Amino acid sequence: MVNISPAEHSHGIDLESALDFLNTLHPGHDRTDEQHQTDEHLVRPADAAVWFLEHELVHPDAGIRIGEADLARIRRVRTALREVVDSVVEGRKPEPDAVHLVNATLEARRPTRLELDGTALRIGHRHAETPVDDALALISEAIIEELATGRPERLRVCANDRCRWAFFDSSPTGRRRWCDMRSCGNQAKAARYRARLKEEAQDQAQVRPN
Ligand SMILES: [Zn+2]
Q1: Could you tell me the distance, in angstroms and rounded to a whole number, from the CA of residue 67 to the centre of ligand 1?
Q2: What is the model's pLDDT at position 31?
Q3: Once rounded to an integer, what is the mean pLDDT over residues 96-117?
Q4: CATH code assigned to 4-174
Q5: pLDDT tens digits, residue range 3-29?
Q6: What does DSSP say about strands 166-168 and 155-157: parallel, antiparallel, or unpaired?
Q7: From ligand 1's centre to the CA of 28, what distance in Å?
Q8: What is the pLDDT of the chain when averaged over all its residues?
Q9: N or C end of the chain: which has fewer CB within 10 A?
C-alpha cells in the first residue's frame, strides 16, 4: 500500500497578493505627480522582509535576511513583472529583458521532486536556494499562471495615470476601469465634469456679443 500525501506544508500566494506586490510601487490615490514618482513601499530591506512574512512567503520560524543587494533584485523583479502585466493589459509584447528576468526568477525554484518516506510518497519541497529567490518565484508563478492559464483579459491597470494600481477585474460585466470607484473613479468623473463646465463656459463666451 502506497500513500500519496501532499507536502507537509505548502505555501504560495494568490493572484491578488501577487498583484499587490506590484502595487508596492506607486500605489494609492490622490497622489501628486511628485509623490507618484517617489511612492515606494519597499524603501528598506526590512520593508521587503515584512512584506514577505505578512504574505506568508517565508516560514516565520525560519525568518528571512534581506540585504541591500537583495532589495535591488526584488525591485528589478517587480519592475519586470509589472512590465509583463502592463504589456498584457496594453495588448503589446513585453520587453525581452523583462521576460528573461521573470524566467530566471521562476527557474530559481527547483522542480517538483518525488520523495520517499518508507512506502509513502511525498511531493518534495520546491524551495529555491534562498528565501528571497523562493518568495520572488512564488509571486512570479501566481502572475504567470493567470496570464497563461487564467483570465489574462481580466487583468487591469487603473485608468488613473497617477494611480496605475494593478488589479484583477472580477466584476460580472468585466468593465471595471478604476481600482476604486470612490477614489479614482470619482476623480475621473469630477475631472470630466470640470472639463465640460469649462467647455460650456468657452462656448458661451464665444456666442456672447462683444
Ligand atoms: Zn486607481
Answers
A1: 31
A2: 56
A3: 89
A4: 1.10.3300.10
A5: 433 333 445 789 999 999 999 987 555
A6: antiparallel
A7: 7
A8: 83
A9: C
Confidence band (pLDDT; 50, 70, 90) for 162? Answer: confident
Q: What is the ipTM of this complex?
A: 0.98
Q: State mean pLDDT over 35-58.
A: 86
Residues in the chain: 210
CA of 41 to the centre of ligand 1 (A): 16
Q: How far is the CA of 2 from the centre of ligand 1 (A)?
A: 52
CA of 81 relative to ligand 1 center, distance in Å: 19
* CA 158 to centroid of ligand 1, rounded, Å: 5
Contacts of 151 (CB under 8 A, 6+ apart): 168
The predicted-structure confidence for 131-159, as pLDDT tens digits, reads as follows 899 899 999 999 999 998 999 999 999 98
Cα-to-centroid distance, 162 and ligand 1 (Å): 8
Domain boundaries, the chain: 4-174, 180-210
201 C-alpha to center of ligand 1: Å? 29
Helix (H) or strand (E) holding 123: strand 120-123
User: Which DSSP helix (H) or strand (E) runs through 132?
Assistant: helix 131-149
User: Cα(93) to centroid of ligand 1, in Å?
Assistant: 24
Residue 115 in 3-state DSSP? strand
Cell of residue 164, nine digits:
496605475
Distance from the alpha carbon of residue 161 to the mean position of ligand 1, in angstroms: 8
